[in-house]
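Field reference: sequence -> structure
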Amino acid sequence: MDKLRITGGRALKGEVTISGAKNAALPELCATLLTNEAVNLINVPRLRDVATMRLLLDNMGVETETHGERGGMSFRAPDTLNPEAPYELVKTMRASVLVLGPLLARFGRARVSLPGGCAIGSRPVDQHIKGMQAMGAEIVVEHGYMVAQLPAGKTRLHGARIATDMVTVTGTENFLMAAALAEGETLLENAAQEPEIADLAEMLIAMGAKIEGHGTSRIHIQGVDRLHGCNHQVVADRIEAGTFLCAVAATGGDVVLRHGRADHLDAVIDKLLEAGAEIEAGQDGSGDFIRVRASGRLKAQSFRTTEYPGFPTDMQAQFMALNCIAQGTAKVTETIFENRFMHVNELVRLGAHIQTDGKVAVVEGIDKLSGATVMATDLRASASLVIAGLVAEGETIVDRIYHLDRGYDQMEEKLRGIGADIERIK
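Structure field:
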């Protein structure tokens, strides 16, 4: 099992290119199921979850191909597809539920294993099931699978008003894709507003879908008879960009993030500015960029995770790592997932002073951390341990980094390119 060896104490300096967003690429791979024409994606990140999703599509009968150096991939889903997502292929990836909507919308049936993923709390699929049922699907859960089909005599889902009990990103994405081919109009209330959802909507529009309101909590979709192929570029990964912002700020560095979208990171950037980092954002000849600089010890920042555009739960662990060596005490409140403080014990192994009580962690900043062997427990926890290792004295070994490979495209190579002393141990 691979590990990372990090020797801390180096300020990060230079330029790093932000990859395409995992949380946009995964639903967009699923959206290729909605047409029998070729769909070309570029800027697809090289991640374990993307490889798993591609393997799942291959297993169904989708023709897939990798091309070019810019993360190019092509897909064509024939009419003879096998609409099943078996447990063996989806047990490690919760995003597998995203094939449910496209399969139902185009083929009228689906058999999808209940998904897995990071062990960071309950991720119920009941909202997905309720939404699909509102659109006319018949769904039962049996033997670990969601088995869905259209009623006898029906050939399409129908439009519906769907108001979920809570804001759900994958639920919104599933309903978007299903509604694009449904008969009539669908209204999504309490929809998630993440940039990745807006990017998926733009891809569907390029395929011929009629969608309005994406990026807000009310999305209108007028179903069409068929969708066609398209070319689409996956939006830049705001969580990867946020992770590098925290890493550079923690180490007192100066780095330009190429393709970083500051307008997708307002809540994180506001906290970094309050902590004392300098941030400049804009566009130049190479496109979007964010420059982050920091010197001296930053000030600890309290924050509360919430749905977009609030502070993202996917940045909680990384900012906590920064708070560990900041000046002062910060309170971190996690409202999205109930088990997302599992990285705390590992940060404590590096010398951090953190106390947790339910959904709240109190972080008392200290002058320095000390290297040790730590174990990653989930994707974003992995990133927080890498950041902590970059600022710790001595050597840090991060074990179980297969979590990191699920969501970060060649992270150690990018960090090494901006001055980090980091290597992968096979």
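Note: The chain has 14 helices and 24 strands.
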